[in-house]
Structures
1.
Amino acid sequence: MTPQDPLAERYGRGRSQRGRWVVVASGIVGVVALTWLLWVIWFESTPAAQSQLQGYDVVSGELATAQVTVTLADPDVEASCLVRASAADSSVVGERSFQVTGVEGPQRLEVEVRTEREATSVEMVGCTAPGQSRPR
């Protein structure tokens, strides 16, 4: 018996069949995980509806207007959008929900928001569409 034989008995010689299967299975899991990650990135970066606040005006103690741009991925998409007005103490003093459909490309809209008292800011909460629960 040579000095290397006890080590070979204890730790094995080369890769076993089991080791090859572990490497193959790990590779398959890695490819599936990478495919899923790429799909999530693509899906989240191409929403059906997007919106952006361009500006707002506080017209009076009971009215504010917001200029918003809504972009739909497809003219058949029906988006539900929400604009919110807040007072100086950050409490919500008015909201306006509206629908947008049949739009091709960016559509600029002016939205009136009735308020219970004077608003100091207006925000575009965002738009949702079927299959898109998070407002954008």
Note: The helical segments are 4-11, 17-45.
2.
Amino acid sequence: MAPPVPVELKPHDRLWANAVAAEAERLAATLGEELLAVHHVGSTAIPGIVAKPTLDIVPVVRSLDALDAMRPEVEALGYRWWGEYGLVGRRFCTLDDPETGKRRVHLHCYQLGAAAIGRHLAFRDYLVAHPELAAQYEAVKRRCFEQHHKSSHDYSSCKGDWIQRIEAEALAALG
């Protein structure tokens, strides 16, 4: 299990999208045709709210078995490979800044067709389309930060119920 890290919240930064695009290029150069899409998800993908300055990226691949075989290449990019990390059908990787040691990227890799891809995209798109919910999410994030700023695991757990409720609402809105 990845160790918890202190939580830092930053105002939204438009440059996060550029950083995701750059990371997508690195992944594409390494994974080639195995990589089908790269999605920017999580708080850094929602304009106007505070976020941990850690990019959540969902690479979609043809095959998890093929991705598993490419683990050394992913690790050569500087990623730490955590396997499923509690979610069946996912490959989770983290990238830390070599100079500061701070977490920069979370990769949530899924095979094409995985339901989790739609769940991540629905949550992101729903909050972007409903700024009042994005503002509520920011309030939840700030409350959880005040209570759990020393542990990213506890911070994430604190937000969990709210996220699950809004995810379900977002998926229901899709029909």
Note: The first strand starts at residue 35 and ends at 41.
3.
Amino acid sequence: MVYTLGEAAKATGKSKATISKAIKNGRVSARKDETGTFHIDPSELHRVYPPTVSSEHKETPTNTPEKADIDGTIRELQARLEAAHERLSDKETVIADLREDRDRWRQQATALLVDHRPNAGLWARIFGKR
């Protein structure tokens, strides 16, 4: 059994952002599938974040075929949403990098436009005084 990002957050009482940041920083290892969904081993997660004790009493769920289909659909949509958030975060990072590059190029172009030659003046050039 492995956790998705949302399940890991519920199991530890942390936010999905906190778990995601721990994965990106290398504190927790996880595998990402082709849809962008993280698969986190419970022992790896609980090595860093201890499990929370659930205060609510869980009853045995009655799994009807309709409920199983709905649950599967919900999990699939959650996985797609998490993947979309990951792609959006990646794109925002790229945009920030491009803006930084643009600003550096603009600064360099502006510096090249300034005339750095010594200002000798017209009379000094005419009479050869330098």
Note: The beta strands are 31-32, 38-39.
